[in-house]
Every structure is written in structure tokens, then in C-alpha cells.
Amino acid sequence: MGNEASNTLREILDQSGEYLRWLKEEGVGQIEVSRRIGASRQQGVLTMKTLPDGKRVQTAGRMSVKKTVSAELATEPAGSKPRSVPEIAAEIAGCKRCVLCRTRTKTVPGQGNLSPEILFVGEAPGADEDQQGLAFVGAAGQLLTRMILAMGLQRDEVFIANILKCRPPGNRVPTPEEMETCLPYLQEQIRCLQPKVIVALGATAVRGLLHSETGITKLRGTWQEFQGIPVMPTFHPAYLLRNPPAKREAWDDLQAVLHKVGRTPPPVKPVKA
Ligand code: URA
């Protein structure tokens, strides 16, 4: 195996391993690996095998991975079984579709409940996310956590993802090309997750999901649609950290989201003077 291929394999194994460990911590006991991947690899890292009695077991075997891992996984034939979120994450881990793969530390596929009522979509990983491989774990992420808790939910009840799966250097705004290149991953994740509502956090999420150039200030609080799923655009938590008065409007938007999924917002706690 050439150097480039073995580096790709090492990256995929490192990052998939971390993602699988995280899934285990979150209580996911089993994942399915598509038959096509198992068959094309002959012996993959994880292969699900169906026994004659119909039981499915996980087998591990000799590895023989070709250089074209991501290209092969990216071309799911039309009509075949949709991939699972962990399978998509495994492909993202080895993605080299754009220049951001050269500067990233870890890919950030997104994480959370695999059948969520609500999917939050942000812009792109920042420095903390790039280090940890998890979405929204920095300062903006801490505010997002407080927003989710205020909605009467736990972070692990929702799914949190971004338009881009890799950090743009210096946290610059993603280019239209990077967004177009990365968007198929999010589209596929959304097809798997089937959330009842998507919350688009900030202008980049709105541009990526809705291809709308309307400013977030104008669009926020108005229902939109993506792949047939209602989308609520609202302010990005990083903006709310800089402009705390806008939290009031963001809270109105989140209440509309709760209403849409048939939940009642928890009673507001009296604020101590
Ligand atoms: N900002 C984002 O848009 N996403 C993150 O994951 C973190 C900060």
C-alpha cells in the first residue's frame, strides 16, 4: 500500500474510532455497515454478516482498503439502501473533496440523537470543534446548550451539525464552493435523521440550506422548507454572544419550533433581582 493510501486509511481509522467510541458512550450498541461497503472491501474494519438463522453479527477481518475509499463510498447508486449517519461520518473522516482537508485537525460530522425531533445546523467547526471532532463545543456551543436546556430538552435529544464538516482556517466564512462541495453530506444526514424541524443557525446555515441571500435579520422567525422539512432560521449563538439583546428574538423563534413539534416551552423561572 502506498504512503498516501496508508495515511488515508490511518486518518479514517483514527477518526472513525473516535466517532464509534462516542456513539458507544451515547448508548448506541450496534451500527449497520452497508453490504456494498463490506462486499467491496471483502474484509472491512467492521462488517455485518447475516447468519443462516437471520441473526446479524459483526465481524472484523483482514484489511484490504483501496486508495479510493471516499470516492467509492460517495457514489451510492440510486435506489440502494440509504447509508446510516455513522457510515456517512466514516466517509467524512477521510474526505479530501476540498482544500480544508489540508488544514483540519479532525472532521466534525455532527453528533446527537439519531432520530431527533430537532436538528440544529450551524456554519462550520471552530477551533475547539476542530480539536475535538464535535460540533458546537466552544463558547457558542455552550450558549447553544443553554438554549436547548431552556427549551426543556437535553443536548442528546437533538442532533447538531454544520454546513461544513471541516474548519475553515482562522474561522473565515466558508466559500460558496466549499459549501456546495460539503452540502451532500448534510443532505444525506438529513435524509437519515428525518427531523421534524431544522433550526438554521445564522446566515451561512440559511445560505447553505435555503440558497437564500436574504439577511438573517429579515428571514429569522419565518418558516422555510428544506427537503420537505420545516426550517426555522434564527440567529447564530456566536452572534447572540456579541449581541445579547437579540436573545429575545431567538427565544421567540425557538418557542415557535417547540410549538411545531408539539411541545410546550417550560415555564419561565423568575429572575432573581
Ligand atoms: N460555530 C458553528 O457554526 N459551528 C460550530 O460547531 C461551532 C461554532
Topology (SSEs and partners):
Elements: H1 3-25, H2 35-41, E1 47-50, E2 56-59, H3 69-74, H4 85-93, H5 100-103, E3 111-112, E4 118-122, H6 127-132, H7 139-150, E5 159-162, H8 176-193, E6 197-201, H9 203-210, H10 216-219, E7 224-226, E8 229-234, H11 237-242, H12 247-260
Parallel strand pairs: 4-5, 4-6, 6-8
Antiparallel strand pairs: 1-2, 3-5, 7-8
Helix pairs in contact: 1-4
The structure holds uracil (URA).
Global mean pLDDT: 81
Biggest pleated-sheet summary: 6 strands, mixed
And the CATH topology of the largest domain?
Uracil-DNA Glycosylase, subunit E
The helicity comes to: 40-55%
In CATH, the homologous superfamily of the largest domain goes by the name: Uracil-DNA glycosylase-like domain
Kindly provide the name of the CATH class of the largest domain: Alpha Beta
Order of helices and strands: HHEEHHHEEHHEHEHHEEHH
Shape category: globular
How many structural domains can be distinguished in the coordinates?
2
Rg over alpha carbons: 19 Å
Q: Please count the beta strands (DSSP E, at least 2 residues each).
A: 8
Structure, explained:
The protein is α/β, with parallel strands linked by helices. The chain has 2 domains: 3-73, no CATH class; 85-260, Uracil-DNA Glycosylase, subunit E. It is 43% helix and 12% strand. The chain has 12 helices and 8 strands. The chain has helices spanning 3-25, 35-41, 69-74, 85-93, 100-103, 127-132, 139-150, 176-193, 203-210, 216-219, 237-242, 247-260, and strands at residues 47-50, 56-59, 111-112, 118-122, 159-162, 197-201, 224-226, 229-234. A hairpin with a 2-residue loop joins β7 and β8. Uracil binds at residues 122-126, 129, 135-136, 138, 140-141, 162, 238.
